[in-house]
Amino acid sequence: MARETTEHISRLPLATGRDSNGATRVARPIGGDASRDGETLMHETHTTDEFQALVNSALPTLVRQAATSENGRLYRSVMALVERPLLQQALELSGGNQLKAARLLGINRNTLRKRLRLLGLLQSPGPNGKTVRDNGTAA
Fold first, then answer.
1. DSSP for 80-125?
2. pTM of this structure
3. Which domains does the chain have, with CATH numbers?
4. Contact 85/78 with Cβ under 8 angstroms?
5. How many Å apart are CA 44 and CA 22, to the nearest integer?
6. Distances, alpha carbon 101 to alpha carbons 3, 12, 43, 74, 92, in Å
7. pLDDT tens digits, one per residue of 82-92
Protein backbone atom coordinates (compact mmCIF):
# COMPACT_ATOMS: atom_id res chain seq x y z
CA MET A 1 0.00 0.00 0.00
CA ALA A 2 2.78 2.47 0.92
CA ARG A 3 4.62 1.62 -2.31
CA GLU A 4 1.49 2.32 -4.38
CA THR A 5 1.12 5.70 -2.68
CA THR A 6 4.80 6.50 -3.21
CA GLU A 7 4.57 5.54 -6.88
CA HIS A 8 1.44 7.69 -7.30
CA ILE A 9 3.08 10.67 -5.62
CA SER A 10 6.22 10.28 -7.73
CA ARG A 11 4.12 10.79 -10.86
CA LEU A 12 2.73 14.13 -9.65
CA PRO A 13 4.38 17.26 -11.05
CA LEU A 14 5.96 19.75 -8.68
CA ALA A 15 6.17 23.38 -9.75
CA THR A 16 9.74 24.59 -9.18
CA GLY A 17 9.73 28.16 -10.43
CA ARG A 18 9.87 29.93 -13.76
CA ASP A 19 12.42 29.80 -16.54
CA SER A 20 13.85 32.83 -18.38
CA ASN A 21 10.77 32.93 -20.68
CA GLY A 22 8.39 33.08 -17.70
CA ALA A 23 7.09 29.51 -18.18
CA THR A 24 6.70 27.37 -15.09
CA ARG A 25 9.41 24.76 -14.71
CA VAL A 26 8.14 21.40 -13.52
CA ALA A 27 10.31 18.83 -11.78
CA ARG A 28 9.64 15.30 -10.59
CA PRO A 29 10.24 14.10 -7.05
CA ILE A 30 13.30 11.88 -6.60
CA GLY A 31 12.42 8.44 -7.91
CA GLY A 32 9.90 9.86 -10.38
CA ASP A 33 9.19 8.33 -13.75
CA ALA A 34 12.16 9.49 -15.84
CA SER A 35 10.81 7.81 -18.97
CA ARG A 36 8.10 10.41 -19.52
CA ASP A 37 8.39 12.15 -22.83
CA GLY A 38 8.80 15.87 -23.39
CA GLU A 39 5.24 16.25 -24.69
CA THR A 40 3.79 15.10 -21.37
CA LEU A 41 6.07 17.44 -19.46
CA MET A 42 5.09 20.33 -21.74
CA HIS A 43 1.40 19.55 -21.13
CA GLU A 44 1.95 19.59 -17.37
CA THR A 45 3.84 22.88 -17.64
CA HIS A 46 1.00 24.35 -19.73
CA THR A 47 -1.58 23.13 -17.17
CA THR A 48 0.38 24.71 -14.34
CA ASP A 49 0.62 27.98 -16.28
CA GLU A 50 -3.13 27.90 -17.00
CA PHE A 51 -3.84 27.38 -13.31
CA GLN A 52 -1.56 30.25 -12.33
CA ALA A 53 -3.23 32.52 -14.91
CA LEU A 54 -6.67 31.53 -13.61
CA VAL A 55 -5.66 32.28 -10.02
CA ASN A 56 -4.11 35.60 -11.03
CA SER A 57 -7.25 36.67 -12.89
CA ALA A 58 -9.81 35.47 -10.33
CA LEU A 59 -8.07 36.30 -7.07
CA PRO A 60 -8.30 40.13 -7.16
CA THR A 61 -12.08 40.04 -7.66
CA LEU A 62 -12.50 37.33 -5.05
CA VAL A 63 -10.41 39.24 -2.53
CA ARG A 64 -12.34 42.47 -3.12
CA GLN A 65 -15.67 40.70 -2.67
CA ALA A 66 -14.56 38.77 0.40
CA ALA A 67 -12.92 41.86 1.96
CA THR A 68 -16.24 43.68 2.04
CA SER A 69 -18.32 40.75 3.29
CA GLU A 70 -16.04 38.69 5.54
CA ASN A 71 -15.17 41.37 8.12
CA GLY A 72 -11.67 40.32 9.16
CA ARG A 73 -11.87 36.73 7.91
CA LEU A 74 -10.52 37.34 4.42
CA TYR A 75 -7.64 34.85 4.64
CA ARG A 76 -9.82 32.13 6.09
CA SER A 77 -12.62 32.56 3.56
CA VAL A 78 -10.32 32.63 0.51
CA MET A 79 -8.29 29.66 1.75
CA ALA A 80 -11.50 27.68 2.36
CA LEU A 81 -12.51 28.24 -1.27
CA VAL A 82 -9.19 26.81 -2.43
CA GLU A 83 -8.83 24.15 0.26
CA ARG A 84 -12.24 22.51 -0.16
CA PRO A 85 -11.73 21.38 -3.80
CA LEU A 86 -8.11 20.46 -3.04
CA LEU A 87 -9.15 18.13 -0.22
CA GLN A 88 -12.02 16.71 -2.28
CA GLN A 89 -9.62 15.97 -5.15
CA ALA A 90 -7.07 14.35 -2.83
CA LEU A 91 -9.79 12.13 -1.36
CA GLU A 92 -10.98 11.21 -4.84
CA LEU A 93 -7.45 10.32 -5.96
CA SER A 94 -7.01 8.17 -2.87
CA GLY A 95 -10.33 6.37 -3.26
CA GLY A 96 -11.72 8.01 -0.11
CA ASN A 97 -8.88 6.69 2.05
CA GLN A 98 -8.05 9.54 4.42
CA LEU A 99 -4.59 8.23 5.32
CA LYS A 100 -3.61 8.03 1.63
CA ALA A 101 -5.09 11.49 0.99
CA ALA A 102 -3.15 12.94 3.94
CA ARG A 103 0.08 11.40 2.66
CA LEU A 104 -0.62 12.74 -0.82
CA LEU A 105 -1.11 16.23 0.64
CA GLY A 106 1.88 15.92 2.95
CA ILE A 107 -0.14 16.47 6.12
CA ASN A 108 -1.03 14.38 9.15
CA ARG A 109 -4.25 12.32 8.91
CA ASN A 110 -5.63 14.05 12.00
CA THR A 111 -4.97 17.43 10.41
CA LEU A 112 -6.81 16.28 7.29
CA ARG A 113 -9.77 15.09 9.38
CA LYS A 114 -9.85 18.41 11.26
CA ARG A 115 -9.79 20.40 8.00
CA LEU A 116 -12.51 18.17 6.49
CA ARG A 117 -14.66 18.69 9.57
CA LEU A 118 -14.13 22.47 9.60
CA LEU A 119 -15.00 22.72 5.91
CA GLY A 120 -18.14 20.64 6.38
CA LEU A 121 -16.78 17.69 4.42
CA LEU A 122 -16.69 15.35 7.43
CA GLN A 123 -19.34 15.09 10.08
CA SER A 124 -18.37 15.71 13.69
CA PRO A 125 -18.27 12.70 15.99
CA GLY A 126 -21.35 12.05 18.08
CA PRO A 127 -21.39 11.94 21.90
CA ASN A 128 -20.03 8.37 21.96
CA GLY A 129 -17.11 9.27 19.66
CA LYS A 130 -18.58 7.64 16.55
CA THR A 131 -19.48 9.61 13.45
CA VAL A 132 -23.23 9.93 13.08
CA ARG A 133 -24.85 9.83 9.66
CA ASP A 134 -27.69 12.12 8.65
CA ASN A 135 -30.23 9.34 9.32
CA GLY A 136 -28.98 8.99 12.93
CA THR A 137 -27.18 5.66 12.53
CA ALA A 138 -23.51 5.20 13.40
CA ALA A 139 -21.07 5.25 10.50
1. HHHHHHHHHHHHHHTTT-HHHHHHHHTS-HHHHHHHHHHTTSSPPB
2. 0.55
3. 1-69 (no CATH), 72-126 (1.10.10.60)
4. no
5. 15
6. 14, 13, 24, 27, 8
7. 899 999 999 99
